[in-house]
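quick one, 329 residues, struct below
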Amino acid sequence: MKHFITAAFICAALPAVAQEKLSVALDWTPNTNHVGLYVAQSKGWFEDAGLDVDILPYTDTSSGTLVAAGVAEFGILSAVGFHSQRATGADMTVVMAVVQHETGRLVFNGDRTDIQRPADLDGKIYAGFGSAWEEALISTIIRNDGGAGTFDTVTLGTSAYEALANGRVDFTLEVSTWEGVNSVLLDRPQRAFRYADYGVPDQHTTFLGGNGSWLVENPDTARAFVQAAQRGYDFAANNPVAAADILIAETAGMMSNPALVRASMDALVDGGYLQDPGEAVGMIDGEMFANITGFLFEAGIMRGEDGRPLAQMPDVSAWYTNDYLVGEK
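---
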């Protein structure tokens, strides 16, 4: 299967339109979730596909907003952010799963003997990030362990991790392949609860998505871009050390901790987050996609253009496609 995929990438790298310009927006400052884009850029695979690709820096305007408005043709999108915006009618379609499984986890300091199970989190202080997803996620985890699902929240954003280490809060959420890796490098022992162990569906936590109207009007260019990006992520999945070095070099000093980048790449690959066995990199699992949508719908997180929770579970079959990817569909 791996030989087929590699050969297919070589055969598929055909120019769509000579030096067609397009842009891809990042969902955060550069990190290992973006590695495939930088690999493709560095190795000239976008150029080989006839594309002049601009990787836009992260700004206060979300990548989803930029894609839906047509400011960027593509963007790296968080799964929950995409679902929330798509529910309002945002003009976006997911074209590739960057991360195959849930990388998030609920974490607390490893020396906390009073926290042995999620139910022990009732009444404790959570350092949050200000999204409705967090409330639904954490209360579900606690209730499914027999607790009441009640806790106090202080919104701290990225300061949550220092607050946790200093004992000012009791628990928070983190990405195991980034903040979790960093906690090991900083010698801050943690313990964690996995969402899926307490009734929260697994999900592709990060997507590559495109502007829906643009995709319809530019199918060949879209396919050329997606397959070049897929080739970059395929390289990263099979060459994590080299991919980490490319990411560090291509971001021109923005990666202040090379050890974190390399350890994060190892975590992504060793954990099977970039590729499922026997599948091409980037494939979207329709059942997984529908299951997390159902969870978000039942939790009232998915709201329509009027700001009210959706009255009916949406048909998500047109929200994503594997058609631009190389490999089994």
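The longest strand covers residues 92-99.
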